[in-house]
């Protein structure tokens, strides 16, 4: 069965069980501070499990792109070494939100595996939670009793809290789970070792394929459990592992999900897969990592130096390094795999096709720059090895290579070993631990449980229509962090505060109690669909009614910049072409930033056209046309631009200003005229194929012009108020250039004259034509002088000193014939005489120069010169 059919069959099966089938959510999470990437199928549905929002249907199924490379689930170091863990993988899942529970979940899982896919019952094992003393929980008898209707009891195994109790995070919904494992070893192997003993023992052919989680508890901040009023089902099946079983192969990498990429790597590198362990690991690493990197770039997450971008950069670098070391790839090559990948996965994930060029460009550029870094690191490592007094290289040095050049320990070890050196591994680990502790301490925070004052389902956002309203506090919690100290997060029954999102910063403002007490709202954020207002303290009377007021100017200026980004987006697509896609934005009161895909520098005249285009739309006074709840498809049909990697609902908010129409949740000015003016301040590249424009609008433009005007006036004054200041500066410049030329000529003439005079001062000392003299020339003048004299006078030994604005200079010239005959060396001589001027220098045997700080020593040096003859 082809992988495509395996995925389809899963979705069709759950559709037949009344599940709503939804597409995979983007991999990069935007409103969950505890998670960078979706790491399991349930992550995009967290808000439903937390009760912050209602799902479209209480039964859902999908195939979700997951990435396990950071935080609680991090499989990165396994990937490549084993054959069944990936960085990016698809998780097939079915969900019940307060609807069906264990009975149906187990029955359907069994039906799908054994009847639809036809997996032999005799290769399956299941596990059941054995209970835990820490949490005073008993064995999950309910699950056990259901399982035994389907599978013989000797195939039901007990599992501990680590494997069979699933938790979303330190806090929140959790519960026991049942895993389904397969044993795909040969009959021979099975006869030798009982499969049961290999379950959960990291055996590559006895692996977990599906986990059924029964969410029935909520973990509180103090660690205790409470029973959830609504019980949920959350299941996750590894798609690639399922393909391995159904395609009757022994490794995920032998399924049709991976073989096309592996063939391509074989062609590029000329190395075969399946012949040598190290090569195989490298090929698996690369075939896995290119998927993770390509998908994340398509989702809008580019490699960078911080946060999620840094994680992606590290994955790519790991692949580059394995290619470099084990496949001998010294030039970029991973980007070439994009083509095969997009052909193979492009049907299920069209973003890979649509953004192929961008993905290729970004990967190629990253490869280039990391290969350069690798080269530098290798040189450094050579030097470290050269200077090492013992055969063991210190852990600190190895860590420095890791930290600044991205050299992981194993690479350093490998290279060192080739030269007969080892690395102090304990020292390296100690440095690593120190760094981790430092960053942990910096980001440590503690979040208390919510204190609920008033049950409330939805916290309405009314900030599109009003900036001030009376509100009630429904819940709050305390968050303590090293960075911010103690803060409170407040949730209201409704709010005018816009939470950070869509590139726009969160609103600031205040709430005022009936007794006049004012609490400032420092920032507003959205977390798992709840709007959180951040304050330094709590109001005295929690049940009071508060007047919530958004800081009007902060909001108005943010809105002005937000509308301007839409107009800029339109301008870019008009002036540069339809290939321009938004790749990110930052909208603040004082400025805006817009990142977009484009493959060349934006030329100055294009920038001018773009700016003019936006200002023309501002002049047209286009009114805001907002459609708050229109079906997604209708908006797209009307020509609205949607952003890839953004999570949209079925109904969306569409924002139109004239011909510009975008899906957007941000706040905007009522009329483009309110922007007043738009001014681009810079344009540049931030990655291969990604450009950034920074611009200002509104009051900031006024300030900008005012500053420029002040500078301009000051400049004019300096220039003595000419009528045409630009011309005045140009005149100055050309005058300056003329003067420079004249001075050069004068100096040359002077040197010539000096030469004539000096020639007369040359004396014969033991058959050598000797002169030692202080002159008034600069270094290059002296050099010219030496060589000209040398051309005219044989057997010359000349030494000149000069005082150039307090810097002492000594130059020595010796005819080549003398160098050989008399064993004289200008380099040695200036070095020795240089001591008189407190300096040093060197050069060649026939010409050398020294510089020093003591011009008073020149005479003495010149006097000493004669001693060499
Ligand atoms: P394992 O113990 O094998 O790492 P897990 O306990 O971490 O698995 P879950 O978190 O329960 O797995 O995820 C559900 C399913 O997703 C697993 O049964 C497995 O089929 C699949 N899966 C988990 N991690 C990976 C991975 N890194 N690569 C591919 N598939 C995975
Ligand atoms: Mg795991």
Comma- or semicolon-separated keywords:
binds adenosine-5'-triphosphate, alpha+beta, 25 helices, 869 residues, globular, 6-stranded antiparallel barrel, binds magnesium ion
Structural commentary:
With 869 residues, the protein is of the alpha+beta class. 39% of the residues lie in helices and 26% in strands. The chain contains 25 helices and 36 strands. The strands form 8 sheets. Strands 1, 2, 5, 6, 7, 8, 9, 10 and 11 form a 9-stranded mixed β-sheet that branches. Strand 6, helix 4 and strand 7 (156-159) form a beta-alpha-beta unit. The chain is globular and about 115 Å long. The structure holds adenosine-5'-triphosphate and magnesium ion.
Summary of the model, kept short:
The protein has 25 helices and 36 strands. It is of the alpha+beta class.
Question: By helix and strand content, what is the structural category?
Answer: alpha+beta
Task: Catalogue the unreliable spans.
Answer: none
Major beta sheet, specifics?
A: 9 strands, mixed
Please give the oligomerization state of what you see: single chain
What portion of residues is helical? 25-40%
Give the names of the bound compounds: adenosine-5'-triphosphate, magnesium ion
Q: What is the mean pLDDT?
A: 93
**Strand fraction band?**
25-35%
What is the overall shape?
Answer: globular
Kindly, what is the distance between the CA atoms of the first and last residues, rounded to a whole number of angstroms?
94 Å
User: How many β strands by DSSP?
Assistant: 36
Cα Rg = 36 Å
| Number of helical elements | 25
């Amino acid at each position: 069965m082809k992988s495509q059919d395996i995925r389809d069959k899963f979705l069709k099966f759950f559709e037949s069980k009344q599940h709503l089938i939804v597409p995979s959510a983007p991999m990069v999470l935007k409103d969950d501070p505890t998670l960078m990437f979706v790491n399991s199928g349930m992550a995009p549905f967290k808000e439903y499990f937390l009760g912050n929002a209602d799902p479209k249907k209480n039964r859902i199924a999908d195939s979700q792109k997951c990435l396990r490379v950071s935080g609680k689930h991090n499989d990165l170091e396994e990937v490549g070494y084993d054959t069944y863990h990936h960085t990016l993988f698809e998780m097939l899942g079915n969900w019940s939100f307060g609807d069906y529970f264990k009975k149906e979940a187990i029955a359907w899982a069994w039906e799908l595996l054994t009847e639809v896919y036809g997996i032999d019952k005799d290769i399956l094992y299941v596990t059941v939670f054995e209970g835990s003393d820490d949490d005073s929980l008993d064995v999950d008898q309910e699950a056990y009793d259901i399982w035994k209707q389907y599978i013989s009891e000797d195939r039901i195994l007990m599992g501990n809290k680590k494997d069979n109790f699933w938790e979303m995070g330190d806090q929140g919904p959790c519960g026991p789970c049942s895993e389904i494992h397969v044993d795909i070893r040969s009959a021979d192997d099975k006869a030798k070792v009982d499969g049961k003993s290999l379950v959960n023992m990291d055996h590559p052919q006895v692996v977990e394929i599906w986990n059924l989680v029964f969410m029935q508890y909520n973990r509180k901040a103090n660690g205790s459990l409470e029973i959830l009023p609504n019980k949920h089902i959350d299941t996750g099946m590894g798609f690639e592992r399922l393909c391995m079983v159904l395609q009757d192969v022994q490794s995920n990498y032998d399924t049709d999900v991976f073989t096309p990429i592996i063939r391509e790597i074989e062609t590029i590198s000329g190395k075969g897969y399946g012949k040598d362990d190290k090569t195989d690991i490298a090929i698996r690493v690369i075939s896995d990592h290119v998927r993770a990197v390509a998908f994340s770039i398509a989702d809008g997450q580019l490699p960078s130096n911080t946060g999620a971008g840094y994680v992606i950069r590290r994955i790519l670098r790991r692949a580059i390094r394995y290619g470099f070391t084990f496949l001998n790839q010294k030039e970029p090559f991973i980007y070439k795999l994009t083509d095969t990948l997009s052909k193979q996965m492009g049907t299920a994930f069209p973003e890979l096709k649509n953004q192929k060029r961008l993905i290729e460009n970004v990967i190629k550029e990253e490869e280039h720059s990391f290969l350069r870094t690798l080269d530098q690191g290798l040189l450094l490592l050579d030097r470290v090895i050269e200077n090492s007094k013992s055969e063991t290289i210190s852990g600190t040095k190895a860590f420095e290579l890791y930290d600044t050049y991205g050299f992981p320990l194993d690479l350093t070890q490998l290279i060192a070993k080739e030269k007969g050196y080892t690395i102090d591994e304990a020292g390296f680990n100690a440095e690593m631990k120190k760094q981790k502790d430092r960053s942990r301490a910096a980001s440590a925070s503690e979040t208390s449980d919510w204190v609920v004052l008033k049950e409330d389902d939805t916290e309405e956002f009314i900030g599109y229509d009003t900036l001030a309203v009376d509100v009630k506090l429904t819940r709050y919690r305390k968050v303590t962090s090293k960075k911010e100290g103690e803060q409170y997060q407040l949730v209201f029954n409704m709010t005018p505060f816009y939470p950070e999102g869509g590139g726009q910063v969160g609103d600031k403002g205040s709430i005022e109690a009936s007794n006049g007490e004012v609490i400032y709202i420092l920032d507003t954020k959205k977390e798992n669909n709840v709007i959180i207002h951040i304050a330094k303290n709590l109001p005295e009377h929690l049940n009071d009614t508060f007047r919530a007021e958004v800081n009007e100017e902060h909001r108005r200026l943010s809105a002005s910049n937000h509308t301007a980004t839409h107009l800029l987006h339109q301008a870019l697509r008009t002036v540069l072409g339809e290939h321009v896609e938004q790749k990110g934005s930052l909208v603040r009161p004082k400025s805006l930033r817009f990142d977009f895909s484009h493959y060349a520098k934006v030329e100055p005249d294009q920038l001018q056209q773009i700016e003019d285009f936006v200002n023309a739309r501002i002049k047209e006074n286009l009114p805001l046309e907002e459609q708050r709840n229109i079906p997604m498809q209708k908006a797209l049909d009307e020509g609205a631009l949607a952003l890839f990697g953004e999570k949209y609902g079925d109904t969306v908010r569409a924002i139109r200003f004239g011909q510009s129409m975008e899906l957007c949740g941000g706040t905007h000015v009522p009329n483009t005229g309110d922007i007043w003016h738009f001014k681009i301040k810079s344009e540049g590249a931030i990655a291969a194929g990604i450009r950034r424009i920074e611009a200002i609008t509104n009051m900031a433009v006024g300030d900008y012009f005012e500053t420029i005007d002040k500078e301009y006036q000051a400049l004019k004054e300096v220039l003595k108020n000419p009528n045409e200041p630009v011309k005045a500066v140009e005149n100055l410049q050309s005058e300056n250039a003329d003067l420079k030329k004249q001075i050069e000529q004068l100096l040359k003439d002077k040197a010539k004259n000096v030469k004539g005079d000096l020639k007369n001062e040359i004396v014969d000392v033991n058959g050598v034509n000797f002169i030692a003299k202080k002159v008034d020339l600069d270094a290059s003048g002296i050099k010219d002088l030496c060589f000209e004299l040398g051309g005219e006078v044989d057997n010359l030994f000349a030494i000149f000193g000069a005082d150039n604005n307090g810097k002492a200079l000594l130059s020595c010239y010796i005819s080549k014939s003398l160098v050989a005959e008399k064993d004289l060396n200008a380099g040695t001589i200036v070095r020795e005489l240089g001591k008189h001027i407190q300096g040093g220098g060197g050069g060649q045997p026939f010409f050398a120069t020294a510089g020093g700080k003591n011009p008073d020593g020149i005479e003495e040096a010149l006097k000493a010169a004669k001693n060499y003859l």
